[in-house]
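User: Hi! Is it possible to get a structure for several chains at once, not just one? Here's what I have:
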Amino acid sequence: MTTWPMQTIGIIESCFKEKFAIPRQPGLSPSAEATLTLLPPFNTPDTVRGLEQFSHVWLMFIFHETAVQGWRATVRPPKLGGNQRIGVFATRSTFRPNPIGLSVAKLADIDTENGVRIHLHGADLLDGTPIIDLKPYLGYADAIAGASNGYADAGNSTLPVHFSNEAEVQLRQLQGRHPKLRSLITEVLAQDPRPGYADDPNREYGMALYQLNIKWHCDTTGAFVTTIEPA
Amino acid sequence: MTTWPMQTIGIIESCFKEKFAIPRQPGLSPSAEATLTLLPPFNTPDTVRGLEQFSHVWLMFIFHETAVQGWRATVRPPKLGGNQRIGVFATRSTFRPNPIGLSVAKLADIDTENGVRIHLHGADLLDGTPIIDLKPYLGYADAIAGASNGYADAGNSTLPVHFSNEAEVQLRQLQGRHPKLRSLITEVLAQDPRPGYADDPNREYGMALYQLNIKWHCDTTGAFVTTIEPA
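Assistant: Yes, the chains can be modeled jointly so their relative placement is included. Here is the combined structure:
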């Protein structure tokens, strides 16, 4: 069988330091910031000339942390509670024959002073993700009004997010370094990142954002952030 | 440098038998029909279970005819008349570091009787194109209202398309086999597939659709189809 070798053109730095709690699609956490650093020989101002005219870009990336696990014919999407099997090509699951992900992100800034660094908003990418392609988003071709979302329309309700007094104090202390941290935590937890089969309502979770460990649990009123501490 | 080997998961059969005159983005020729045949071991009904719930799909494919030509840091988009250089990552050009294309197509039908054949409308893919991934289009994540198109907004005017009496007769003879042929030719020529540097207004062009050779030229009233003959 023919195989096509793909090379890494750049690496993502992201606020998301682990797979758990990353929003399941791009755009759901506009406060999430990421930077794509292009690698040689692609890191010349030439390769991105004119890209600043676009508001959004497509990123094609490698699911590098799960790629070694290979592919599965069917997977259980979290949107369906994790208990219904759907064909892998009917999902955006990481367990694909070719472990390629596709995300659109808002183009915030392109820095070509010293190599090429592209600042992005709303990307759902793990820190360290290898990028294999970058393309402009073309509204006239890519934005399809009224496309049906299938089962993915299910369960789009979001969780209210609350912070403990302790967490509020910590947020204020971190304000200088991470001004969007409150919005980011709120956007991420509102998606309810708990696994579909979660059945212990009191379980405490930790999630890594930047160099921080955010501890939270769910109660009857929504998600509740208890503490925000250095990881 | 790390490379990621990608395998072909399926092959496209398309009405477009050569690169010339293929619409430059998907969706511009809704009458264009294509079929994706999945290859073993991916051609089981399991891998596409639930895909029928979606109206559109993403296809990731290999620019197999131009891949050997390698990449260029800058290219000259036809949208800019072919005389202005833009960074390759600011375009959808085929001359990319990794020769991956991205297209959205309308999902018409999924046939799992004997292997898996997926019928698509509006795909801008060359016959024989290797596919490396298939994903559902998710409107809530992928359809970005008001995204700016940069230089790609330029030159979106379309050409009027006329047919000679001879071509009209041939279209009627081909009606049974290719009922959408008239629409397809009209959609394709309306995009003005002439190269940006075309300067001879009387030049006659041929284009291959299905097993047909369509001959046309441009005059002051638009595109004019002279004959439609077996290739």
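Chain A has a mean pLDDT of 90. Chain A touches chain B through 72 residues (CB under 8 Å).

User: Great, thank you!
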